Amino acid sequence: MSLPSLHVAVLMGGWSSERPVSLMSGEGVAKALESKGHRVTRIDMDRDVALRLADARPDVVFNALHGAPGEDGTVQGMMDLMGLTYTHSGLATSVIAIDKELTKQALVPHGIPMPGGRVVKSADIHQRDPLPRPYVLKPVNEGSSVGVAIVTAEGNYGNPIARDVKGPWQEFDALLAEPYIRGRELTTAVIGDRALLVTELKPKSGFYDFDSKYTDGLTQHICPAEIPDDITQACKDIALRAHQLLGCRGTSRSDFRWDDTQGLDGLFLLEVNTQPGMTPLSLVPEQARACGMEYPELVEAIIAEALADARGPGAP
């Protein structure tokens, strides 16, 4: 696939907790586009982003933002009002997928296996555990494992969790409490209508948190994962089905936890990322490369779908 020369605005940065990752993603995308002969305008998002986009007048916007407000529907709504063509998922999908509880409500009724649990007030966990230990506490609408805490019987958070102990309860008014699923970390990328591969993530220590994701050498990526064929196929089927049910566009990445002592019954979808990272350590480019698609071609494929979607159903 080869695109005509385009003027692409690459939207990156912003002010979420994932700003450093977004800057790396955006710069990687910009350089890839330039290597393919496209004209690129880099935009580090600030409060004047609408004016800057209007001044740039791009053919298409590559949305390389991560976290709010670039991944939660806010920026998508702004670009819809401006009549801009942009990559990745639209407003409604972004609103649902950034919210882990809304994602469950959208997917579980269709048979997608996800952990149980409930949203709790952070203040309440200082009185009693919301679930039997071990359990996981995570922000309802943050990505990249930001603010995740695993609460175990032998942990050092206290019992109940002490107010003065550092954790997500000090940063967020409400948290999603889920049973802790022992086992292995798996992830599957979807591009367009195709699920790619399954990667297993093995952190050198602890769990697959923000630092493990974006610090070279802290996590081993096994791609493709050395897991049974039925688990591989289940991950791919679930990832593609979730992508379709949520109405994702371009690319998404579904993260799983698999208890390998339970077979298929131990596989659970944790979340769907509608704007997965595009850094040198990111998983979607890695899986695409393993399938024979180099980074610049991946970037162009994401843009091509955005352009086709803007032209309407059935467009060539």
Explain this structure:
- With 316 residues, this protein is α+β, with helices and mostly antiparallel strands.
- It folds into 3 domains: 7-87, Rossmann fold, CATH 3.40.50.20; 97-114 and 182-295, 2-Layer Sandwich (D-amino Acid Aminotransferase, Chain A, domain 1); 118-179, Dna Ligase, domain 1, CATH 3.30.1490.
- It contains 9 helices and 12 strands.
- Strands 10-9-8-11-12 form a 5-stranded antiparallel β-sheet. A 4-stranded antiparallel β-sheet has the order 4-7-5-6, with no helix packed on it. Strands 2-1-3 form a 3-stranded parallel β-sheet, with helices on both faces.
- α1 (19-35) packs across α9 (295-311).
- The longest helix has 18 residues, at 229-246.
- The chain is globular, with a radius of gyration of 20 Å.
- Mean pLDDT is 91; it is low at 207-215.
What is this entry, summarized?
Helices cover 31% and strands 22% of the residues. It is of the alpha+beta class.
Helix count from the secondary structure assignment: 9
The CATH superfamily of the largest domain is identified as ATP-grasp fold, B domain
Outline: globular
Structural class: alpha+beta
Number of strands: 12
Unreliable residue stretches: 207-215
Please tell me the overall pLDDT. 91
Strand content: 15-25%
> Largest sheet, order of strands side by side?
10-9-8-11-12
**How would you spell out the order of helices and strands?**
EHEHEHHHEEEEEEHEHEEHH
